[in-house]
Each structure stands twice: as C-alpha cells, then as structure tokens.
Amino acid sequence: MAPKPIIAPSILSADFATLGADCERTMEQGADWLHVDIMDGHFVPNLTFGPPVVAKIRKHVDKPTTSYGRGTFDCHMMIAEPKKWVKEFKKAGCDLYCFHYEAAFSSAAESPSAKTDATTNPKELIRYIHDQDLLAGIALKPATGVEVLTEILESPDPKERPDMVLIMTVEPGFGGQKFMASELPKVQALRQKYPELNIEVDGGLGPGTIDQAADAGANVIVAGSAVFGAKDPAEVISLLRTSVEQRAGKL
Questions:
Q1: Per the residue annotation, which of 32, 37, 74, 163 is the catalytic one?
Q2: What is the DSSP string of 127-155?
Q3: What is the helix (H) or strand (E) element at residue 201, kind and residue range?
Q4: Cβ contact 67:45 at 8 Å
Q5: Segment 147-189, tens digit of pLDDT
Q6: Which residue intervals of the chain are DSSP H helices?
C-alpha cells in the first residue's frame, strides 16, 4: 500500500517576525506537517535557529495525536553532530528527527555540552532516536549515492530502520535554489524497492516541479517559497497534494 501524501511547508521561507502566526496559518491552509530546517553553520554554511525557537512555534501548532499525524514537526537536522541534539529537540517539540547520513559518523555524546571520543553510526543513531520516542529520518545530500541506505533500510532490527528517507533536490543550506531533477532516480529506486516507505523530497519544489517528484514516487513534499510566497498558499498546498495522490502506487 502506497504511503499517504504529506505536504510539509518549510518554515525557512516564513516571515520570521511573525513566525508562530505564520506556522499556525499554514496549518489552517491545509499543511500536514511543518518542515523545520536546523542549520549549525558547520555542516552547512548557514545558521537558522535552535530549540528555543522550535519550542515557541510549538505553542502555535497542536502536537500530532498519532505517528505521522497532522502537526508533525519534521526537524531536518543539517548539523555536524546530530546525536548531541536529539533530547533537546524532543523537549522543544520535535516529532520526527531527520539527520544527514553524511553527519552520522560523529560524536556519540548525548548532549551539547558532553564530550566523548566515541562515535556513532546511522543505525545506532536511528535506534537512539527511536529510544527517545521520536520518529527517525535519514537524509542524503546530492553527492551521496542512494546505495548507502540499503544496509540501513534492510536491517533485521526494526529499531535501526528509519521511518522516512529524505532525498535532497538542492544542496542543503539555503532556500530558493533551483530544483535538481538529477536526484529523482534515487527516489524512483527507493520507491520501487520499498513501496511503503515515506520518501521526502526537499528543494525547489513547487507547482512547476511537483509532477516530476510525484512521478518518481515521492510522497512527502517539502515546499518553502512556493507555499509561503504564494498569493494563495492553500491552493498551492492542494495542488501539491493532488499531484502525489494521482500518482500514488503507479511505480
């Protein structure tokens, strides 16, 4: 059974002066999740915000009552040491903690101030995130081949398998970039092999590119400026959803 369409507007394109109200309004306009881009200035050359801001906007959006439910905070962790921040973002209201594969071979410390020479790995980090009662996602930069995920997705231990895979269709770090259709074969390969997997695409998504992503098999759609910059955001959210619905299960 094909997974349901999920539209997750990226709050990186919201008005930061009225961030809570913008998030609340976007949910009222039909969004399923909010995509929360966390950048540390190390893993990517940009800075966004940390747990205090997430905690503030959480007050404007009801927590989901079920896994993957409406109001899910999909935290995309573009940070160099993702294990250190799992507990902090859970406290702030994160529901799905999505780290980058490329950053997963880093410190095994469990808090921002802790230090250790031990390192983690993707399967251990997914298990740790699940142990905190969070959903776990794993993201790939454009330069990383999708084959690195096979061992992880096919782990015999379900606690080591991610709940979602994020394929970046731009280089992570900045909003408003041009969509990279060259990354869609990764989506298609994953969908053909794992028909029930939640597959997210992020970067350059909007009315002009959604059909390509949906044709490839993506079901979780991140759109920033296409939603927040639209004259009618509800119409754009509806269009994105319809494109995914019309193509669900066709691969």
A1: 37
A2: HHHHHTT-EEEEEE-TTS-GGGGHHHHT-
A3: strand 198-202
A4: no
A5: 999 999 999 999 999 999 999 999 988 777 799 999 999 999 9
A6: 19-28, 51-58, 86-92, 122-131, 150-153, 184-193, 210-216, 225-228, 233-247
Q: Using the 8-state DSSP alphabet, how is residue 84 labeled?
A: G
- The per-residue pLDDT of the chain, averaged, comes to 96
Catalytic residue flag (residue 131): no
Please, are residues 219 and 6 in contact by the beta-carbon 8 Å criterion? Answer: yes
* Cα 39 from Cα 37, distance rounded (Å): 6
Token pair for 147: 């084959």
Distance CA 193, CA 247 (A): 17
The DSSP code for 98 is E
**From 22, 95, 163, 202, active-site residue:** 202
Tell me whether residue 163 is one of the annotated catalytic residues: no
pTM over 0.90: yes
Residues with Cβ within 8 Å of 64's Cβ and at least 6 positions away in sequence, in order, are: 70, 71, 72, 95
Query: What would the two tokens of residue 223 be?
Result: 């759109």
pLDDT higher than threshold 70 for residue 251: no
